[in-house]
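So, can you check this record?

>
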Amino acid sequence: MEFSWELAESILILLLAGSLAGIMAGMLGIGGGIILVPPLVFVFDLMQVSEVVIPHLAIGTSLATIIATSLSSAKAHLKRGSVDEQLLKYSIIPTSLGAGFGGLVAGSLSGGVLALIFGFMAVVVSVRMIIPSNAPNEIVREPNRSFIGNLTGLTGIISAMMGIGGGAMNVPLMSTMGIKMHQAVGTSASLGFVIALPGSVGFIVSGWDNPNLPEFTFGFIHWNAALCICLMTVILAPLGAKISHRLDTKKLKQVFGIFLLIVAMRTLWRLWS
């Protein structure tokens, strides 16, 4: 690969995107895919990759980076005791099965309808998180962790198909169903690995021997781009976790809600335009 200004620009974009994704992964429990897919699409377009495979290549590469990012983030949250280990135990099998299925079929399905459902659902959830509830005498119940764990199978399918680590869906799900916000963030960060690994395998299989793929790819994963991103996410995810634990629960919930609303509006805008 010869040096060019386009190559230098691509590397810089990926390093900056990886830095932001790492901090957000640690702070909000997201895998970073929501942040990474748009710059990956831009970079692959800059590299003159075939338009036919750019969306799938961006999503698959994003999932591959989440493997390393989520491990770094989960380790930081475990040290701080903010992972609900019982919920994690109930979620591993449903999430991994869902993510494997989502990654496998993503190569042949359009994500338009799925993105539309995700966008509208995210708007509703984000508004609920941003605007605090003033309901008096709210009854606090013990969360049904087994039921929540089964629901993560569905979020695993959608997350893998959209190239995200699941935090944009799992954090509001867990928080709404009674899991403390900091633990929802930490547990979601741990589940990022469970989504990303089988999801990445699915994208490798579905993109195997595709004639439109550029060099340095393994199925729908561009390893050079993934390594550039991981270089920054692994370093900065613990910083995001540190920031998360300095925010109170209410503030963290509102920050996540604002982030989720921005993501939802961007998703719907792209479908509309």
About this structure: The radius of gyration is 18 Å. The first helix runs from residue 5 to 28. The chain has one domain: 5-272.
